Amino acid sequence: MKIPVTNDTAMPIYVGAAMIPPGETRHFEEDDVPHHLRPQVAEIKTEDTPLDPLAELLKGTVPSVVLALPDMSIADIERLGDLEQQGQGRKGILSAIAEIMLAKAGAD
Length: 108
Prior knowledge:
By secondary structure, the protein is of the alpha+beta class. Helix content is about 40%, strand content about 15%. It has two domains: about 1-35, no CATH class; about 55-105, no CATH class.
């Protein structure tokens, strides 16, 4: 992968045997660029992202997920079904979601 190195100083800088005049940019292979000239990688903070309660629920077993369904809203059940289809796609959970959705739709 090529890394751009820009010379923001008033003097030429060198990367390996190549000179970069002031104000110019050259592209180099990543292995050729010294660490102090490489772009800074932003740290990913996992602590700041709130946990999704539905995603956390899906980490459980099929019976634990099925037991939580009757107390959930239709919107949450639909979203839970979408998350399960994108993830593991366990048939026990998906069929229980379909049954609850039909029962709630029939009750309305």
